Amino acid sequence: MDGDTGEAVETPSAGPPAAEPERASAEAEPPWVRRAVWRGIWQLIAALLVTAAGLWSLRQARTLVRYLILAQLLTFALEPAVTWLHQKRGWRRGSATGLLLGGILVLFVLLGVLLAPALANGVNGAIRQMPSWIDKLNSFTQQHFNTTVVSASSSRESSQAVSNAAKYLQQHAGDVLGAVGSLLGAVFGLLTVGLFTFYLTANGPQIRRALLSRMPPERQQRALWAYNMAIEKTGGYLYSNLLLALINGGLMLVTLLLVGVPYALPLALFEGVVAEFIPIVGTYVAGAVPVLVALASLGPGPALIVLAEILVYQQVENYLLTPRISQKTMKLNAGLAFGAAMAGGAVGGLIGAFFGLPIAAVIQSFVSNYYSGRYEVVESDLTRIEEPKPPEPEPLKPDAVPPEPPSPRRRRRWRRRGG
Questions:
Q1: Were 340 and a residue from 113, 218, 331, 356 both cysteine, which residue would form a disulfide, CB within 3.0 to 4.6 Å?
Q2: Containing structural domain, residue 363
């Protein structure tokens, strides 16, 4: 109350003004939030830079990475033989690995020395005789089917192309610098892959122990299972297909020599390798080439003999040899095998296509082992499978008598005679 006027004076309450600073202080950002945001931004930038640097380094070292992958695949293929020599024969792993790699090198050198002249002569002879083969083939089809396989214009163009290729090779025969450089690069790559393969195979247990020591026991079991599966699939695929290629090529060589088809050795080698190591289409491509050469050079009779040998051998291989030789190696769907070979060829060329199948088999085994759960499929027009209907019984004729049910057989009772 005011003393002069006697009126009551209202004093403002201090409640609301005191609450506003508290609300402002509560809504203010803590000092650590800004630091955390900037730290996250810098960490993201650093991760992007490290990823970009890693991808750039990987791109620069892609040849080395390809050599390492190829060496690891060769290690999978050599591991069964090295383990057998080490455990059964008492050899050291380094000695066994060196013996196998040396044997493979000697084998390839011998094949190159022995087969290169035959292949070169075969290709040159086939090029020279191509026009006459085309004429024989056209005369045969014209006589029996009233048509020609190769037209006259195409025949002239092919002959001109052959002559142009021969002239080009003669003119550039002295330009061997690029060929020598490519050969040296191939030799360097081969030696690099060989050294990596020797190290990974000879010191395989030490490398695996060093890698597994960083994993818990459960993950170690999974890693060992995956490694064993890779060895089993890759090694089994390589050895079984090599044996099948040897049998296939040997029988084709005998057939071509008996029939008298020219260039029997290159054709037999082509048949064995292509038919066994290229899935699905390899069988047809490898069989078509010798048949066409026999048809063009000797006529329809020898070509039919070669075709009959191919068909008979395919049946023998599918139903007799393959189940016995490669029953434990791989079981892949035909479409999956073809896709794996195409993907491997796109990544690593011919060698990638060769190893694409065992890699796909390892992935399939891993998925089927660890992700084997199945669920009921929702029925729809896209998932419905039409099952064949059972045949309806024929209606009985009015005068027909239904067959009597078979009488039950009486069991004979055997009495044991007393001794």
A1: 356
A2: 73-148+188-369
Can you read off the two tokens belonging to residue 77?
Answer: 């293929």
User: Do 59 and 49 meet the contact criterion of CB atoms below 8 Å apart?
Assistant: no
Q: How many CB atoms lie within 10 A of CB 267?
A: 25
What's the number of CA atoms in the CB half-sphere (13 Å) around residue 320? 7
CB 344, CB 355: distance < 8 Å: yes
| Tally of structural domains, the chain | 1
31: in domain = no
Indicate whether 60 belongs to any domain: no
Convert the pLDDT of each residue in 172-212 to its tens digit.
Answer: 544 544 555 566 777 788 888 889 999 999 998 999 999 88
Fill in the DSSP letter of residue 14.
S
Both tokens of 395, joined, read: 């209606």
- Tokens for 325, please give them: 């030789």
313 occurs within a structural domain: yes
**Tell me: the pLDDT tens digits for 355-368?**
777 777 777 777 76
Single out the residue of 360, 330, 333, 331 nearest to residue 345, CA to CA. 360
Pair 245, 276: CB distance under 8 Å: yes
